[in-house]
Write a structure and sequence with these properties.
- By secondary structure, this protein is mostly helical.
- Helices cover 66% and strands 0% of the residues.
- The protein contains 4 helices and no strands.
- It has helices at 12-23, 29-36, 41-54, 73-114.
- The relative contact order is 0.07.
């Protein structure tokens, strides 16, 4: 699912063409919008600003969230072993706490009864 509904992604060539028309031909953002069939003049403004900041490289960046890397079997095995060890440690600590609570309750009752 995309982040914003109705959001259109324009190809790199179209962005570069809009920037070229703005700088070389001196066209206004409204004229560029009409010629290229863009939804808003704000797109042209944003592309020009990106071009001024970063040059052509601004339009070579991938769009969206980076893809997850596939985990190798070895690294997945190591991760699962680490998780298993952590869960065992947590379980041991939790069991100690539960047993300590039971013993405290029992030891108080036993001491009262023995006197």
């Amino acid at each position: 699912m995309s982040g914003k509904k109705g959001m259109k992604h324009y190809p790199r060539e179209e962005k570069l063409e809009a920037v070229r028309m703005f700088f070389e031909e001196g066209m206004t953002r409204a004229e560029i919008k009409a010629m290229l069939g863009l939804r808003s003049e704000g797109r042209v403004k944003a592309w020009v600003a990106q071009y001024r900041r970063e040059g052509v490289e601004a339009f070579n960046k991938p769009i969206g969230r980076p893809r997850k890397r596939e985990e190798s079997e070895q690294s997945e095995l190591e991760r699962l072993r680490m998780e298993n060890a952590l869960l065992k440690k947590y379980h041991t600590e939790l069991r100690k706490v539960v047993l300590a609570k039971r013993n405290i309750g029992l030891s108080i009752n036993i001491e009262k009864n023995t006197k």
